[in-house]
Amino acid sequence: MTDLDPPARPPATTRFAPSPNGGLHLGHAWSAIMAQDLAHAAGGRFLLRIEDIDGTRSRPELADVFRRDLEWLGLEWDEVAPQSTRTARYDAAAEQLRALGLLYPCRCSRAEIAAAATRSGPDGLVYPGTCRRAQIDPQREEVAWRIDMARALQLTGPLRWTDALAGDQQARPEAAGDVILVRKDRDTPASYHLAATLDDADDGVTLVTRGMDLFEASHIHRLLQTLLQLPVPIWHHHPLLIDSDGRKLAKRRNAPTLADRREAGEDGRALAEDLRTGRLPAGLSLGSAVESDPCR
Ligand code: GLU
Q1: Which of 195, 218, 252 corresponds to the end of one domain?
Q2: Is the CB of 196 within 6 Å of ligand 1?
Q3: Do residues 25 and 124 both lie within one domain?
Q4: Closest C-alpha among 172, 196, 193, 166 to residue 121
Q5: Measuring CA to CA, which residue among 152, 295, 130, 133 is closest to residue 219?
Q6: Nearest atom within ligand 1 for CA of residue 19
Q7: Is 25 in the pocket of ligand 1 (CB under 6 A)?
Q8: Is the domain of 128 the same as that of 112?
Q9: Is residue 210 part of a domain?
Q10: Assigned domain for 290 exists
Q11: How many structural domains compose the chain?
Q12: Across all residues in the chain, what is the average pLDDT?
C-alpha cells in the first residue's frame, strides 16, 4: 500500500455537508460561504450533501429548510445524493475492511466502555479493546464494528496529509483508538468517519472544508483513504464562530437559526457579505473552541 501524496486532483471541489438534526445557524452560514467562495475562486464546484445517516435524529423536512437558507445567503451549489441513499456503498466498504482483517465486532455498551476506559481521545473515550480478541458471533448478537487501529497502521505505514491553513500533518489516527465504523444501531448503518470519507471521494471533493472542531477526525479519514484506495484531498479546517463564553455556536444550545433570521426579514446576502468581510454580529468572534461535534 502506498501513501497517495500529493493529492490526486487540484483543490477545486468543495462541499457543505450539514446534518438535518437541527436548524442551521451562523456558524453553518460561515462554513458554507467559505466552502462556496473557495471553490468558485478556484473555478471549481461547490456541493451540498445532506448527511442524513442518523435515522433516529434526522428530520427529513429540514433538508428543504437548509436549501432555502443557502439560497437566502445568495449561495449557488450542486446537490449530490444524501447519505441515506448510499448505504450499499458503506456496507461494501465495511466488507472490504473486514476482508483485510481490520474490523472486529464489539458488543460493549456505552456504560461498559465508560467503566473500563482509561483515557480520552479526540473522539471521546478511547475504546479499551475489550472485544478485540473476543469470540463473538455477529449473527447472534447486536454488534458494532470497530477498526483494529494498530493492525491498520501496520498495513499502511506512516501517512501524511495537508491542511491548507495548518500545513503538512503526520496522520495520528491512533490517538482516537479503535473507533466504530459500523454502528450497532441499525437505523444508522455507518459511522460519520466511514460515511463522510467515502462520500467525499465519491463526490470528487478535492478540498474538504469544515470547522476546526473536526480537525482530529481527518487523521482517521486519511487512514481510511489509504485502506480503501480512495483519492486524498486537501483539507481546509476553518476557525469557528464562537460566542461570548468562548463556546462554538451549537444547535443544542439554541443558537438562533438562519431560518429564524430569514423569517424575521433579515437580508441574507448582506449578512453573507458581513461574514465575508469579518463584520461579525455582536458577541461573536472567530476562534478555535474545540468540542466534540454532535454529528459524530
Ligand atoms: N455532517 C457534519 C455536521 O453537520 C459535517 C461533517 C463534515 O463536514 O465532514 O457537523
Answers
A1: 195
A2: yes
A3: no
A4: 172
A5: 152
A6: 4
A7: no
A8: yes
A9: no
A10: no
A11: 2
A12: 91
Please check whether residue 3 is in contact with residue 158, taking contact to mean a CB–CB distance below 8 angstroms: yes
Model pLDDT for residues 252-268, shown as the tens digit of each residue: 676 789 999 999 999 99
Ligand 1 atom closest to residue 16's alpha carbon, by position in its atom list? 8
Residue numbers of the domain that contains 25:
10-84+241-284
Cβ–ligand 1 distance for 17 under 6 Å, the answer: yes
Q: Which three cell numbers stand for residue 127?
A: 475504546
State if residue 293 touches ligand 1 by the CB under 6 angstroms criterion.
yes
Span 21-48, pLDDT tens digits: 999 999 999 999 999 999 999 899 999 9
Residue 206 lies in a domain: no
Cβ of 295 less than 6 Å from ligand 1: yes
Q: How far is the CA of 281 from the centre of ligand 1 (A)?
A: 23
Interval 173-195: pLDDT, tens: 999 999 999 999 877 789 999 99
Nearest to 192 by CA among 296, 97, 293: 296
Note whether 87 and 189 are within 8 A (CB).
yes
Same-domain check for residues 61 and 79: yes
pLDDT of residue 292: 47
Same domain, 46 and 69: yes
Tell me, yes or no, whether 64 and 141 share the same domain. Answer: no
Examine the fold and report which residue of 171, 195, 219 is the final residue of a domain before the chain moves on.
195
Tell how far the Cα of 279 is from the centroid of ligand 1, in angstroms: 25
CATH of the domain at 263: 3.40.50.620
For residue 196, the CA-to-ligand 1 centroid distance in Å is 8
Q: What is the pLDDT of residues 86-117, one digit of tens each?
A: 999 999 999 999 999 999 999 999 999 999 99
129 with 75, same domain?
Answer: no
**289 in any annotated domain:** no
Among candidate residues 182, 37, 6, 214, the one with its CA nearest the CA of residue 103: 182
In SS3 terms, 212-233 reads as HHHCCHHHHHHHHHHHCCCCCC
One domain for residues 124 and 145 = yes
- CA-nearest residue for atom 6, ligand 1, is 17
Ligand 1 mutation target, pool 48, 80, 214, 251, most atoms within 8 A of CB: 214
